[in-house]
Design goal:
By secondary structure, this protein is an alpha+beta fold. It contains 31 helices and 27 strands. The longest helix is centred in the first third of the chain and has 22 residues.
């Protein structure tokens, strides 16, 4: 038997308690479903065939209620696999029937994101327009969750208990009451630690509520506790539920530039949307609209002619969340006034004071402004070339419990933020808060709260939206990973106690008015970027996308949907110019002869922020730059690594920032052209041995971060050897027609029909990871084959890169978990260790967040049609093969003697202690089942050096001690003993002679 290998499992978070007869559930959503702002629509479930579940080697059940489908099994992996097997027939909803998935997603996005409605934007900026309008929105779900983890529901004796990470317990409790018809006192909500959840602790709902309703539906139907895994897969609910609230504001101006008419209209009274499971199970109550559809609202400002109203329709029985409503109203009002001030050329603080009659409020704002040293005309505040700085103001005054405005609380906030142009990350660097009633505001704790809930690790408002090029969003934290560098925020009061867990959210600040919290950050973002975000969340991906769109549209003179009337800041003009040059450069690619790009001086070490450089380090690790650009024994990235091709030998180049021999004089435009189009700075065509065909898929943000990282590394002078290519392949100009035929320079586009995890894996595997460069065969012109040949396996530098699709010849089928173990830890218990050509790949992947490696494994598993985990059938088959290999085949005494003398001590379990014993039997080694003997021969000649795998010894090479005949004899014996159902290899001795060469730390890839 092979020695077991302990690995980190994907669902590593402990369950919140011990449950009897616990089952694990997965919810299956309809192909199309969405909330359109008024009602919920979805495809109808026409038929369910559950007979296939009875054929599975484990117990699995389906829960069907209306259009809700859940699958429950004895493990989450089995539940996911069973859900894939379930046969469902859906009848398209009328409004979605003719809409493909991609278009449906686009419609959901357009419904979710409000668009500006402005008249005469140019006149507004010039101070001559008399009217200004804008719509703002609030999402139904702020994000998919705070962190990956279990959500458990137990229903028994007419009582429901749920362990979840909800931030809106009252809204969830109301949903569960509607679902189960239980009274609220029969429903208990707990944290993972077992404490009861009562008070709201967030700025809106997230999908932890949807997972809780899913678990409750399945637990109630089966009579067993059910655990659901909450992760980024629930982001589909975020998209489908779209917008919960729409707020429309307008202002008209008189000849003296004063607001003479002000209108505020709130589309919905509650601003909350029920859980998806409630709608799918047809248990959500119909929307009830009273005859009086207008509800008076409050505003701290006094305008000559003002009208404020809200629609009063909401789900029957649904309680109004006054805290959430005040946050939404303040966000829209303060964003609108801030934007009007900028568009009219006025100080945002002075504009507020002009229309604020309340003396206490005026005094509070002026006091906070003085503490914050508020100035309207601040100089350019760019900390580095890639970091923008901005400042925002927001004010709120709310009535007391008796709806009296005068005796209500007043709150004024000023916040400073830093925005990284490249990554889109936003950092709250300073917060000044004033409040006129209650206890003195603990600004340190308040900022800590906002940093945790708005900008921190959970990042519910800024940064948790998964995106294909987002580094670390939604990831399982790996304690050994280096976090992206961040500036430490400035705290106005005392710092948080050092013994407080940094990942724990502080208790709710019940005496603090939080309404200005979202608005103040939105206004600071606007000041920093010139872009108005009309709806949270302000995720890094949204900020980055808006910045890129703004720069592109500014260079072409078109208006952006993200953009307000603020003039482009001078500190952003260089970025717009860079975007314009990129567009112009792309158009010029059609011309076969390329000109040189003017060299520049090496960028200063302080040009880019630490955060951008750290992101670039991760990009470089994912692209495995050092593996190809470093020769054995040489300095990192100095080039000289040889690549043997059918057309001759190519050598990698120096990519350190040395100005003479490296890329130190390359501008970003030159670097981007090489990565995306395969054209060097001097205009020469590059060969696709440098996989620009894959790197072209990299996002602009990641390319810029990679450039920043490489330019921040030590410069090393090293010239690469000259390439040795046969004619006509040494004529670089011939690459122009090759590129026209085989190269697509467009960046990666996510598939809206796939999960965020799949798209992240696809982005990494197809782009930076360039997996197909080795694992897909090539045609006669050296271009990768696609279609059925994608990941079908290929020969690279004398090694076979095995198939990563359904053609895999592994004796034990791969699973997603075993792929993850192999890529993350360098070893899979049923497949062996990663070394040789895969060793530097695994070494690079060890630098990435765990979520990214999980995503790659998920993507590859989909190409293989592999299950989530290793089932009992795979384990049994592995044991059978290992047992069969204990007997040596007859008639192969010479091969047996060679094996006993050179291999048996490590590859057979003879009961004696050994420090170098291989943990995986050769009976499970993929190479021995291949049609080609190359990897086995390479391993015998060069040895196995699994340096990336802890506690695994090295196997010496036998090139100097075995003749060609002996190597062929040993390979024949290994094939016969450990892969007895595979046909013998032919002409082995000739193949050994062709492969024999010096071997240094080379070995097989067991994949």
């Amino acid at each position: 038997m092979t020695e077991s290998h302990s690995t980190v499992q994907p669902y590593q978070t402990a369950l919140p308690a011990d449950f009897e007869n616990l089952r694990y559930g997965v919810a299956v959503r309809p192909p199309h479903y969405r909330w359109n702002g008024e009602h919920f629509t979805c495809d109808r479930l026409a038929h369910v065939d559950t007979s296939v579940l009875k054929t599975l080697p484990y117990d699995a059940n389906a829960v069907v209620e209306g259009n809700f489908v859940g699958v429950v099994a004895n493990s989450i992996e089995n539940a996911r696999d069973a859900a894939k097997c379930l046969i469902l027939s859906w009848q398209p909803h009328d409004s979605l029937s003719a809409m493909p998935t991609q278009q449906a997603r686009v419609n959901e996005e357009s419904q979710k994101t409000p668009v500006y409605k402005k008249t005469s934007v140019a006149d507004v900026e010039g101070g001559q327009a008399d009217r200004y309008e804008c719509d703002y929105g609030w999402p139904s779900r702020m994000r998919w969750g705070e962190a990956e983890g279990w959500v458990v529901a137990e229903y028994q004796n007419e009582r429901l208990e749920v362990w979840t990470q909800t931030t809106t317990p009252e809204a969830l409790r109301q949903d569960l009451c509607t679902l189960t018809t239980l009274d609220a006192d029969h429903i208990a909500l707990y944290t993972r630690e077992g404490a009861e959840r009562n008070a709201a602790s967030g700025l809106g709902r997230h999908c932890g509520d949807d997972a809780a309703v899913d678990a409750a539906l399945m637990a109630r139907a089966l009579g067993h506790p059910v655990a659901v895994w909450l992760d980024a897969r629930y982001s589909v609910d975020v998209k489908a539920l779209g917008q919960a609230q729409r707020l429309s504001l307008s202002a008209a101006f008189d000849e003296e530039n004063h607001i003479e008419r002000y209108r505020y209209r709130q589309a919905h009274a509650s601003g909350e949307v029920a859980a998806v499971g409630l709608f799918l199970s047809s248990r959500a109550l119909a929307q009830s609209i009273s005859e009086d559809t207008e509800k008076p609202l409050y505003s701290p400002y006094t305008f000559q002619n003002a009208h404020l109203s809200a629609h009063n329709g909401r789900l029957s029985g649904q309680a109004l969340n006054d805290t959430l409503l005040s946050i939404q109203q303040t966000f829209a009002r303060e964003s609108f006034l801030d934007e009007v001030a900028h568009a009219r050329g006025q100080d945002p603080l002075a504009l507020r004071l002009r229309y604020l009659d309340d003396a206490r409020g005026r005094e509070l704002i002026e006091s906070v402004a003085k503490r914050a040293d508020w100035q309207i005309d601040l100089p350019s505040r760019s900390a580095t070339s890639d970091v923008l700085q901005g400042r925002g103001l927001a004010y709120a005054q709310l009535p007391d419990r008796q709806q009296r405005l005068e005796s209500g609380v007043r709150s004024a906030w000023i916040a400073d933020v830093e925005v990284n142009r490249i990554t889109g990350n936003v950092q709250l660097t300073r917060l000044v808060v004033g409040q006129d009633s209650g206890v003195e505001v603990d600004t340190a704790r308040l900022q800590h709260t906002l940093q945790a809930r708005v900008l921190g690790e959970a990042r519910p408002l800024l940064g948790s939206e998964p995106a294909f090029d987002e580094w670390g969003d939604g990831r399982l934290e790996d304690k050994q990973n280096k976090p992206l560098a961040r500036r430490q925020p400035s705290l106005e009061r005392q710092v948080i106690a050092s013994n407080e867990a940094p990942s724990a959210l502080p208790v709710t600040l019940e005496d603090t008015e939080l309404s200005p919290g979202v608005a103040v950050i939105a206004n600071a973002l606007f000041d920093a970027t010139g872009i108005r975000f009309c709806q949270p969340p302000f995720t890094a991906s949204r900020v980055r996308q808006a910045l890129q769109e703004h720069d592109l549209e500014a260079s072409t003179g078109r208006n952006s949907l993200f953009l307000s009337g603020k003039r482009r800041s001078p500190r952003r003009q260089w970025f717009a110019a860079a975007a314009f040059m990129t567009v112009a450069g792309s158009a010029a690619m059609a011309w076969p002869w390329k000109g040189a790009i003017v060299p520049v001086s090496r960028p200063a070490a302080t040009l880019y922020s630490a955060e951008t450089i750290e992101r670039g380090r991760l990009v470089a690790a994912a692209g495995d730059c050092a593996a190809c650009h470093t020769v054995a024994g040489g300095a990192t990235n100095t080039g000289g690594h040889a690549f043997e091709t059918p057309f001759g030998t190519l050598y990698s180049t120096n990519i350190t920032p040395d100005e003479a021999t490296g890329i130190g004089r390359w501008s970003y435009a030159a670097f981007e052209r090489a990565m995306r189009h395969g054209i060097s700075r001097d205009g020469r065509h590059l060969y696709p041995a440098f996989p620009y065909t894959a790197f072209a898929k990299t996002s602009d943000a990641d390319l810029q971060a990679l450039y920043a990282y490489l330019m921040a590394q030590p410069a090393v002078s090293a010239s690469a050897p000259q390439n040795d290519l046969s004619f006509p392949f040494n004529v670089r100009a011939l690459m122009a027609p090759w590129n026209a035929l085989y190269h697509d320079p467009k960046p990666f586009q996510p598939d809206p029909a796939q999960s965020e995890l799949y798209n992240r894996g696809a982005y990494l595997a197809e782009g930076l990871g360039h997996c197909s460069a080795c694992h897909s065969p090539r045609n006669a012109m050296g271009a990768e084959k696609d279609g059925k040949y994608y990941f079908a396996g290929a020969m690279v530098d004398g090694w076979e890169a095995p198939a990563l699709n359904t053609l895999s010849r592994s004796p034990i089928g791969w699973s997603e978990n075993s792929l993850y173990d192999y890529l993350r830890h360098g070893e899979s218990a049923l497949h062996g260790v990663a070394s040789g050509p895969m060793a530097p790949v695994v070494a690079g992947l060890s630098e990435l967040p765990e979520y990214d490696v999980r995503a790659i494994a998920h993507y590859v598993a989909q190409q293989m049609e592999a299950p989530s985990g290793d089932g009992t059938a795979q384990q049994a088959e592995a044991q059978r093969r290992v047992a069969a290999a204990t007997v040596s085949p007859n008639g192969m005494e010479e091969g047996e003697r060679l094996f006993d003398g050179a291999c048996a001590a490590c590859h057979l379990d003879n009961g004696l202690p050994s420090f170098t014993r291989a943990r995986t039997s050769l009976a499970l080694n993929t190479n021995l089942y291949s049609e080609r003997p190359d990897n086995v021969i390479q391993s015998i000649l060069g040895g196995v050096h699994a340096d990336t795998v802890p506690d695994v010894g090295s196997m010496p090479g036998f090139a100097d001690s075995f003749s060609d005949t002996q190597v062929a004899t040993l390979a024949t014996y290994l094939r016969a003993r450990f892969a007895p159902d595979a046909p013998p290899w032919q002409q082995l001795e000739q193949r050994v002679a062709a492969i024999r060469q010096p071997h240094h730390n080379n070995t097989h890839s067991s994949l």
